[in-house]
Amino acid sequence: MLFSGAIVGGLLGLVVSGTGAEAPVAKGPPLIVLDPGHGGKDLGAVRRGKVYEKDLALAFTRKVRERLEKGGIATRVTRDADEYVPLDERIHDSIRWGGSMFVSLHINQDRNKKAQGIEVYAFGKHRARRYRKWRNRLPYLPAPPRAASSVSRELADHLVRSLKTDGFRADPPERAGFYVLKNPKIPSVLIELGYLSNAEEAERLSDAAYQDKLAGAIAESLREYVARGGDVEADQQAKK
Ligand SMILES: [Zn+2]
After folding, report:
1. Which strands form 188-195's sheet, in the order they lie side by side?
2. Residue 77, pLDDT above cutoff 50
3. Other CB atoms closer than 10 Å to residue 84's CB: what's the count?
4. Residue 159 CB neighbours (<10 A)
5. pTM higher than 0.85, yes or no?
6. For the packed helices 208-227 and 53-70, what is the interaxial angle rounded to 10 degrees?
7. Per-residue confidence at 12, pLDDT binned at 50, 70, 90?
8. What was the pLDDT predicted at 130?
9. Is the pLDDT higher at 231 or at 7?
10. pLDDT of 142 above 70
11. Among 8, 48, 51, 178, which residue is least crowded by beta carbons within 10 Å?
12. Residue 171, Cβ neighbours under 10 Å: how many?
């Protein structure tokens, strides 16, 4: 069994049983694992040959991390330099560290130059075209346990609600089969912070003041979720 029933009621009382090779995840204070997309030879989205998704994802991750740590929440990052870290290694690390949630940060791109806005994904059925090319090189991961994906979806919903409240343009929460959303032990979400293919948004995403604002809003939303104990019922009550 990967998840105790308790996970549904309270994400951060995360109880996960070890699988032998893995150290069992300890109960304790929440640990948010931040995952800056891409890195090293994997550039991610590129704008005009000089603005790389991998760099922006790292810049945002550092800012979200700083805000969380200031708020007293422990974090780990899957990379803190421009280096290539395979997706399965990122998942493995997050479990080994005893993470209580996994938050992957990416920058979007689309052929439609007008596409814009923030998108938050949790595991679910959706065509994940851009990730297809990775699939064969990575160890197979089945769909995550239901309890984990249900918490992931709650977290995604919460993030979208609070980002919208803060005045950001965020789409309704989405589902996808991205590899990092298949973390078998830790609720996981992926945030596309905006479109590098959209001229206006690309400019904003590279702007330090905007990075601070958005990173601050994400950190605050995560902090709020943690403070609430990831309580799904409380979350649903808040919706009413
Ligand atoms: Zn990406």
Report:
1. 74-77, 31-36, 101-108, 188-195, 119-123, 174-176
2. yes
3. 12
4. 24
5. no
6. 50
7. very low
8. 53
9. 231
10. yes
11. 48
12. 13
Q: Can you spell out the DSSP letters for 50-92? A: TEEHHHHHHHHHHHHHHHHHHTT-EEEES-SSS----HHHHHH
Residue with tokens 């019922």: 233
For residue 104, report the distance from its CA to the centre of ligand 1, in Å: 9
Report the separation in Å between the CA atom of 107 and the middle of ligand 1, taken as the mean of its atom positions: 6
What pLDDT sits at residue 83? 98
User: Smallest Cα–Cα separation from 184: which of 137, 134, 147, 157?
Assistant: 147
**pLDDT band per the 50, 70, 90 thresholds, residue 165:** very high
pLDDT at 58 over 50: yes
pLDDT of the residue at 127: 56
Sign of CA dihedral 158, 163, 165, 166: positive
The rounded Å distance from CA 175 to ligand 1 centre is 15
Q: How far is the CA of 78 from the centre of ligand 1 (A)?
A: 14
The CA distance from 168 to 223, in Å, is 18
Separation of 12 CA from ligand 1 center, angstroms? 27
Residues 6+ apart with CB under 8 A from 55: 82
And the tokens for 22? 């893995």
pLDDT at 6 over 80: no
Please tell me the distance between residue 38's alpha carbon and the centre of ligand 1 in angstroms.
6
- 30-229: which CATH number, 3.40.50.10490, 3.40.630.40, 3.40.190.10, 2.40.50.100? 3.40.630.40
